[in-house]
Amino acid sequence: MMNTVWLMSGTSLRLPLYTLGKSNHDPETILSINRPILPQIESRLDQLRRSERKVAELVLAQPDKIIHMRIVDLAAAAQVSEPTVVRFCRAIGCDGFGNFKLALAQSTLPASSGPFHLEELDTAREYTYKVFDATLETLAKVRDSLDLDAIEVAVDALANARRVEFYGFGASSPVAIDAQHKFFRLQIASAAHSDPHIQAMSAMSLTPDDVVVAISQSGRSTALLEAMDHVREAGALSIGLAPGGTPVIERSTIAIPIDVQELPGASYTPLPSRIAHLTVIDILAVGVSKTKGEEVDQHLTRLNRGLQSLRTNS
């Protein structure tokens, strides 16, 4: 069943901007993102329709450029329709364009230096470089797999919201707090909640003009899912930042999957998913600031000027 998102535009006009739905694609045929996708495309060229083959040949010729394209850009470059691009993705075993971009990004990234692993004799230089390398690799993969169409719709929803609330538990709680700090500076009424009871009461108090950003590194927190149910009952929009295919993503009005492979190890290891979530929050904040334009720019200038008096010159 398809679920159409309606976003506020102007005062009372509502426009259908984004449609989300569950795929009927057989899970057994979905391409594993751990398998190289380019050889898969080459091996299936003869099985593709003529229009799908045009997309395949462009991907094989320019994979580094394709990972930065939206579906509309790829369709235009290949001189085919957007539905043809979607059919191509499914024909090669991907469950949609987002899954295709993730697989392509992982195929085109330089070879990793190996999984994160601390050695007993690691020097400060060695474990410092290991942490940075693991984080940078994670951010590159997330960047290249982000659904940019979903980003645009989320920015539109946030920029037009009466109020924005951020929900997160555990390691996602600091991300929610950081997001609230960014968005209230953009002159948007906002709050961050990490207590399940407060989240539930807050969700019940929302209106259809409000937006909730649900942040989860597992995508399976039962308390967060219950709060999202209350958000839906209140008629508000929910933006989900969580791993793809998880309940949080499936219950979101606007889904932004963030797939991060957590680093193994019994000892302390960095948490790259939190850094990825913080980065996506930055992307959304930049988009909203850009959408609001000069008025927000002037407000931020006044804020920065006013903060100078709170800082010592010594």
Descriptive terms for the model:
single chain, 314 residues, Rossmann fold, two-stranded antiparallel sheet, 14 helices, 7 strands
Tell me about this structure.
This protein has 314 residues and is an alpha/beta fold. It folds into two domains: 26-108, Orthogonal Bundle (Arc Repressor Mutant, subunit A), CATH 1.10.10; 145-262 and 269-304, Rossmann fold, CATH 3.40.50.10490. It has 14 helices and seven strands. The protein has helices at residues 37-43, 50-61, 63-66, 71-78, 82-91, 97-108, 124-145, 148-159, 173-184, 196-204, 222-234, 247-251, 272-292, 294-307, and strands at 2-9, 13-21, 163-168, 190-193, 210-215, 237-242, 254-257. It has a five-stranded parallel β-sheet with strand order 4-3-5-6-7, with helices on both faces. Strand 6, helix 12 and strand 7 form a beta-alpha-beta unit. Helix 4 (71-78) packs across helix 5 (82-91), helix 7 packs across helix 13 and helix 10 packs parallel to helix 11 (222-234). It is globular and about 65 Å long. The protein starts with a strand and ends in a 7-residue tail after the last helix.
